[in-house]
């Protein structure tokens, strides 16, 4: 695995960090996001889909819907943002057709991926959001080689 870290000093730097993240994206389509509750996973993913051309007004948390679908206004690329926090079992995840999303070729951004670890593709990019003592954040990107 190769590792890259993007530092976010303040909340004002999230959009720039998302643009840097987009520059690092390759052909992979599945990205998992881990970090403690309140670390900023949803905020970062919202900035990320905005950097990919989604209207900022549409880039919100799927916490209650479980999945949000976005389409880039610039490239027409399809993206899914999953928040699996409320799901209890892998069976519940499979019931929403999760594997079809993974196989769709669309970008999939997954919060709380622990529940689906066994069915993620081998080329999944794992992203951790770490809160530092000074309240800054580090986005730690681990890409398979």
Structure, explained:
This protein has 145 residues and is α/β, with parallel strands linked by helices. It has helices at 14-24, 41-51, 90-95, 98-103; strands at 2-8, 30-34, 67-71, 78-83, 107-111, 125-131, 137-143. A 7-stranded mixed sheet has the order 1-7-6-2-5-4-3, covered by helices on one side. Strand 6 (125-131) and strand 7 form a beta hairpin. Helix 1 (14-24) crosses helix 2. The chain is globular, with a radius of gyration of 14 Å.
Layout of helices and strands:
Elements: E1 2-8, H1 14-24, E2 30-34, H2 41-51, E3 67-71, E4 78-83, H3 90-95, H4 98-103, E5 107-111, E6 125-131, E7 137-143
Parallel strand pairs: 2-5, 2-6, 4-5
Antiparallel strand pairs: 1-7, 3-4, 6-7
Helix pairs in contact: 1-2
């Amino acid at each position: 695995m190769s590792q890259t870290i993007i530092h976010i000093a303040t909340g004002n730097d999230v959009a720039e960090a998302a643009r840097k993240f987009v520059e690092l994206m390759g052909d992979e389509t599945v990205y998992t996001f881990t970090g403690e509750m309140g670390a900023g996973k949803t905020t970062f993913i919202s900035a990320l889909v905005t950097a990919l051309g989604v209207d900022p007004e549409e880039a919100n948390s799927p916490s209650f819907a479980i999945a949000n679908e976005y389409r880039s206004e610039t490239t027409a690329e399809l993206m899914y943002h999953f928040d699996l926090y409320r799901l209890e079992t892998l069976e519940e995840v499979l019931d929403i057709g999760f594997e079809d999303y993974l196989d769709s070729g669309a970008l999939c951004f997954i919060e709380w991926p622990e529940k689906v670890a066994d069915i993620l593709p081998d080329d999944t990019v794992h992203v951790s959001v770490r809160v530092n003592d000074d309240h800054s954040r580090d986005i730690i990107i681990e890409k398979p080689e």
